Amino acid sequence: MFESAELGHEVDKETFKKEVPLLRAALLDVQYDVLQKKEFPVVILISGVDGSGKGETINLLYSWMDPRHISTLAFSTPSDEEAARPYMWRYWRALPAKGKVGIFAGSWYSQPIADRITGVMRRAELDEQLDDINRFEAMLVNEGALVLKFWFHLSKDGQKKRLKALEKDPRTAWRVTKESYDRLKTYDKLQDVAGHVLRVTNTAKAPWIIVEGTDDAYRSLTVGRIVLDAMKRRLQQPLQQVPVAPPIIHPIDRKNVLSELDLTQKLGKKDYESQLAKYQSRLSELVRDPRFVGKRSLVLVFEGSDAAGKGGSIRRLGAAMDARQYQIIPIAAPTEEERVQPYLWRFWRHLPRTGRVAIFDRSWYGRVLVERVEGFCSEPDWLRAYAEINDFEHQLAQAGTVVVKFWLQISAEEQLRRFKERQDTEFKRFKITDEDWRNREKWDEYVSAVCDMVDRTSTGQAPWTLVEANDKNFARVKVLKTLCERLEDALKDEGKKS
Amino acid sequence: MFESAELGHEVDKETFKKEVPLLRAALLDVQYDVLQKKEFPVVILISGVDGSGKGETINLLYSWMDPRHISTLAFSTPSDEEAARPYMWRYWRALPAKGKVGIFAGSWYSQPIADRITGVMRRAELDEQLDDINRFEAMLVNEGALVLKFWFHLSKDGQKKRLKALEKDPRTAWRVTKESYDRLKTYDKLQDVAGHVLRVTNTAKAPWIIVEGTDDAYRSLTVGRIVLDAMKRRLQQPLQQVPVAPPIIHPIDRKNVLSELDLTQKLGKKDYESQLAKYQSRLSELVRDPRFVGKRSLVLVFEGSDAAGKGGSIRRLGAAMDARQYQIIPIAAPTEEERVQPYLWRFWRHLPRTGRVAIFDRSWYGRVLVERVEGFCSEPDWLRAYAEINDFEHQLAQAGTVVVKFWLQISAEEQLRRFKERQDTEFKRFKITDEDWRNREKWDEYVSAVCDMVDRTSTGQAPWTLVEANDKNFARVKVLKTLCERLEDALKDEGKKS
What we know:
Two copies of one chain form a homodimer.
Chain A: H1 13-37, E1 42-48, H2 54-64, E2 70-74, H3 80-83, H4 89-92, E3 101-105, H5 110-118, H6 123-142, E4 146-153, H7 156-168, H8 178-185, H9 187-200, E5 208-212, H10 216-236, H11 269-286, H12 290-295, E6 297-304, H13 310-318, E7 326-330, H14 336-339, H15 345-348, E8 357-361, H16 370-374, H17 379-398, E9 401-409, H18 412-424, H19 434-441, H20 443-457, E10 464-468, H21 472-497
Helix pairs in contact in A: 1-10, 2-10, 5-9, 6-17, 11-21, 13-21
């Protein structure tokens, strides 16, 4: 793995001095092209052995490019806001926008490598996390990002020499701490773990670039040239769409998960009122349970036909909780700041912290519903969304978030009745738009999209609940009941763990 | 102060049942008008005595309006990210966007009131903070916000009764804790402090609305009606511009702070190199000093004529620091998410945490420079900006942030020379735009704006440094030297304190 990076690569001062002005001019030029095109972000990971010159090279990159459009983020101990959310949240919030360069000094690799060296993390856990990372990086690349992962290597002897040299120079002596020497002791262990990590995550989409760290000039010039070359090539190549997944299967008969729903199910007024009260009070206890408040969070997804009663159901949930504990996030068209980020970014930013509840009124499933049907994104984009969404929800579940997803279904006739009623009711008129009427014409296409969505994203950790919603009372109680049951199960598990 | 709120106001069940549907329909209606107009946010503060029904009323407001466009934020102990920034940062980040309703359960008043009751805060400090709050709220109103501040009052006896009643009902018993009873003991003290706070902050722009909290129906109906009425009236009235401040004074002779600068000052190559090295190394020590890293942060502002060399100066600073410690924030046109917030919001969001450095390449001074000269905002808007900016920087200084502001000045002739040079240099061409040429034609207007800015915003805590920048070497060294001196002074103070 590291053979080529122990050859004692060097660049003499003369060459360095000659090369830098050319490199700098070219880098500035390409950086401005990237900035003006605003089509993709540049994500640079600088990782490697201690004392291998990560900081020095980052600082040089700053002096070679326009530092106003670069951001560097160093990640050490997570802040409490970060610790209360899934592992990747802090990295999502730090992603550079399209057109910008983001340098990660310490990245999503640091924690697993450190935890594996100290033994906190078992090999199987590490491999699971590396799988997550591979999928995350593939997503970034599919979203257009240029991802460059550098690993600075030093031979054992080289590391010792670098530390001594840093210590001698009064300008850099502060960088050498007791910990630096401690890490020297774990050199072999690090090589072992890093070797494994690099092999497993050395993907075609985001390969590792291993650079010998001993000589400052060689290391930085190498990185600068690779960054330049990669940015240039990325500018010339349009985003390559991933090969299309096997086509979605259309059943030959008319049977599907929606057609099989019994939409005639009803709940009389009296039953409704007593059950509503029962489940609301149960819900109100569950979200105040110390096992929930201290350890879990809740993400609710509401999707459904237009006029299926999402708003009404959400309102009934809300009535059982304290407004200070939950947020409703209505999903509309993405803002400017959201459009320059990967698709899922605008959902990551709203994730609740431990003890809190986020209710999404429409959600990330927009990509495989409206965006698919209306052609707002390409086929490869919505096809890969299934896997990305499953990953996303898997990460939520891993972090202790209970994910509960509802699809509210009404019949075409019931929808028509509700549309007409809304048009006739003064204070409900805002609820009906021309778009609703247009969507209605694509009823069958939406049915296909929903069925595919359910098949591909109903997982053990985050199953879909299909709600028969022709009768509002029935639907609301089913939503509340399902939610209570899911929460109870989760807290039972919590009880067992502790 | 609280006389009218101890009369035993009540609304009977009958009336409540009759009123609510009408109120609800009207509230929904007006909420949608506000949402569609997207002209102003609605900021609602719900504060008051413990057990006075704050939570209940907030939850009712949710059931009366469309909860998808309301956000409620409860503020208790600040997170570590919040604690590492000025006091108001957490409230700025929670402000609702134009068109939305934001309910603050616990607000910027909670901390000072609590600290005054426990005696942690002295009366003079409290009054100082109340002044800050008054100016903050005035800013919100001037920016268009509808600010409604509710204080729920209970008589001493009333509070005891409410606690008992809450305790009896199994659905609300959890709300009553030992602390609730502790607070009963400090009832008189709270009344005393709250009375003072309410008097001092009962401004014409954001008056307090005191509501008796004893009866649920009365309290919530009152709040609902006031919210409805205020939103309606705000929709009908266009934003009232504040009366214009005394006109800016134009000197009769041609003498001004810029004309008095000696732009011929120069620094030879040798001197430059030795001084650059000296101050860079001093700066690099200062930002690594434990007194800085643990307690202070640094905000740098770079303003100046076009082509005055801001970028070059920033680069020389950056070279002395670790890229992981600072961020450069280039200020361009505001994004969509920034345009629906008060003017200063987009700067608050970039404030550095303790130990970090933020370098603003252009800044909040845009309002009194380009926006004033080009007419991008109204005269009352830029006139009030001086005071708002001083407040902002005062808050930064209070929180331990060192604020250093540079104006880089070149002569009209030197600017012309640099513009031409840039046009002729391939890789500098991106630096010159048509806008630069247009700005140049308004040279004199910019001079007036700069002089007014310096006079009105050069404060003891955050003075302006005017930099003679015809000679780049001279300018860069002056910037570095000034920064080092300001940091040294700040750390000396830090040394004395501890």
